[in-house]
Specification:
This protein has 532 residues and is an alpha+beta fold. 45% of the residues lie in helices and 16% in strands. The protein has 24 helices and 15 strands. The strands form four sheets. It has a five-stranded mixed sheet with strand order 2-3-1-5-4, with helices on both faces. It has a five-stranded antiparallel sheet with strand order 7-8-13-14-15, with no helix packed on it. The chain has a three-stranded antiparallel sheet with strand order 9-11-12. Strand 4 and strand 5 form a beta hairpin. Helix 8 packs across helix 11 and helix 21 packs across helix 22. The longest helix has 18 residues. The termini are far apart.
């Protein structure tokens, strides 16, 4: 059960008490589950849906010669200004936000649906800065998928009840679970294959939580949209290998869940993204030591058992002894063993937690939570990072921290201007909540001029934050970086306009490491040029 399902049920229960016309707008984007939710409600809660007509703007049309706006106007006729007070019609309209916006801009809305238009405008559903809320009045109720995500934000980091509970339903030991019933029958028949082991591995709560965290990372770091259908396909793909029959222990290792998650980029777009999160890309002292130990061992089994939390059902581990000494193996077999050990360590490793931590990701998610709860003090380090990144991106004279280069004019000289900016936080909304189910998934921060009259804003997603930290650590952006970070460059340009470069400029001589200031003297209405 998802929160939006409860919101819809509450709206239907409230509407049941009313004798007036009732329009429930179920708003969202393409593929976010509006149709699925309505189908579920029809199936499981017909008593709440009784008397309601349902119209899905994306799938229904009455006349091939009418466009979507003509059809909408016809569907909503009972809720027009002329009919709404005399109608007792009940309608659920599943509508994409783009279509709804177009309808509000149409002549239909301006001439015949002013009450509906006024209600939608009050919802502020099209304002990117505003956290969307479900609202209602006498005739209208608006429920929006906007700002819902498949995971929650907490002060201790993100989590996903949605992912974890669906994974749990697949593996729970329950007579009503057909997957577990089939698993037990296969166990009775002595079936011992990688997909049996993968299912057993997924029965571990720690593994399910780590899988859910990987999916959250895919959503945040690579903006991967994970529909319920894609998620269920994913569960199949990490249990059932593409080649069910294995002819060697090496092939069997490749068919195990840790390898299927990180080394199956061609099976689905989601698995392609997860391959970029492969723990084999991590490096730490402990990981390097473990790999060196494996590469120099005569007993591969001992290395796996020493570093992994295995149980008595992991029969495959004993088969590794048949491989002999590591150095005698082919390069491809060595590579499979190295990758398998690291990937298994990610899920079942003994004291490997710190070795697979992504500090940049953790910092971003902490800032994201603090932004959504309006924790101004908690965001102070982020403001400092962004400000320093602005100066590092453009460059600054060595002797003066408050000046920033405009453009590279020559190899020997640069022109700089002063940039005195202060954080702007008035757009932040404070709320006290340890867990957020609805939130903005990007951080919007602002800076203002010294007089506090003008502001410039920047929306920071994870890729941009990653780039900001790289620049802080001395990375010099190349041409491609500048093309990718166009939003950041535009933000810097807005900041530069907050400072009055017509009053003073700094000229920096690289060859002699000298600074000169060109400054306007308001008293004498003239410019002065002097060495700093």
């Amino acid at each position: 059960e998802r929160l939006i399902q409860r919101d819809l049920m509450t709206a239907l229960e409230d509407a049941k008490e009313s004798s007036t016309s009732q329009l429930i707008l179920l708003c969202g984007s393409v593929g976010d589950g509006k149709s699925h939710l309505l189908a579920y409600m029809n199936e499981e809660h017909p008593e709440l849906m009784e008397g309601y007509q349902i119209h899905n703007d994306a799938t229904e049309s009455f006349d091939p010669y009418k466009n979507s706006l003509d059809t909408l106007a016809e569907v909503l006729k009972g809720f027009s200004d002329d009919h709404i007070e005399h109608s007792n019609e009940k309608l659920i309209l599943a509508i994409n936000l783009g279509v709804l916006h177009n309808f509000l801009e149409s002549d239909y809305a301006k001439k015949h649906f002013t009450k509906l238009s006024s209600f939608i405008e009050k919802s502020r559903i099209f304002e990117s800065d505003y956290l969307s809320e479900n609202i209602q009045d006498t005739h209208f109720k608006l429920i929006s998928f906007s700002d819902y995500h498949p995971y929650e934000l907490t002060k201790d980091g993100p989590k996903s009840d949605y992912f974890v509970q669906l994974l749990e339903k697949i593996v729970q030991d329950d007579p009503g679970n057909p997957f577990h019933t089939a698993y037990e029958k296969d166990m009775e028949n002595g079936l011992n294959t990688p997909f049996m082991y993968n299912y057993r591995l997924l029965k571990r709560e720690t593994v399910r939580k780590l899988v859910s965290h990987l999916l959250i990372k895919a959503s945040v770091q690579y903006k991967q949209i994970i529909s319920t259908r894609a998620f269920l396909n994913f569960i199949h793909d990490i249990i059932v290998p593409s080649n069910i029959e294995t002819n060697s222990i090496i092939e069997e290792l490749e068919a195990f869940l840790p390898n299927l998650i990180f080394d199956s980029p061609d099976r689905s777009p989601l698995l392609s993204v997860l391959s970029k999160l492969d723990p084999v890309h991590f490096r730490s002292k402990k990981i390097d030591e473990v790999l060196m130990q494996l590469n120099n061992t005569n007993n591969i089994v001992d290395v796996f058992q020493e570093h992994l939390e295995l149980d008595e059902q992991e029969e495959w581990i004993e088969q590794l002894s048949d491989l002999g000494a590591f150095y005698e193996l082919t390069n491809s077999s060595k590579q499979v063993l190295n990758s398998t050990l690291i990937r298994f360590a990610y899920f079942l490793g003994k004291n490997f937690q710190d070795d697979f931590r992504q500090q940049t990701y953790e910092k971003y998610m902490d800032y994201l939570y603090k932004y959504n709860v309006g924790d101004v003090k908690g965001l102070r380090p982020l403001f400092k990072e962004v400000k320093e990144a602005v100066f590092n991106w453009k460059g600054k004279p060595k002797k003066n921290k408050e000046y920033i280069f405009l453009e590279e004019t020559s190899k020997d000289m640069n022109i700089a201007q002063s940039l005195n900016i202060r954080p702007y936080v008035n757009h932040l909304n404070t709320q006290e909540s340890d867990i957020l189910y609805r939130f903005k998934n990007v951080i919007k921060i602002g800076f203002q001029d010294e007089n506090k009259t003008e502001q410039a804003f920047l929306e920071i997603d994870f890729p941009l934050y990653q780039k900001i930290l790289k620049v802080l650590n001395g990375y010099r952006p190349n041409k491609k970086d500048k093309e990718d970070a166009i939003q950041f460059i535009e933000f810097i340009d807005k900041l530069l306009k907050l400072s009055k470069k017509e009053d003073e400029l700094m000229i920096y001589d690289h060859t002699e490491d000298l600074l000169f200031k060109l400054e306007y003297d308001e008293d004498f209405n003239e410019f002065t040029f002097k060495r700093e």
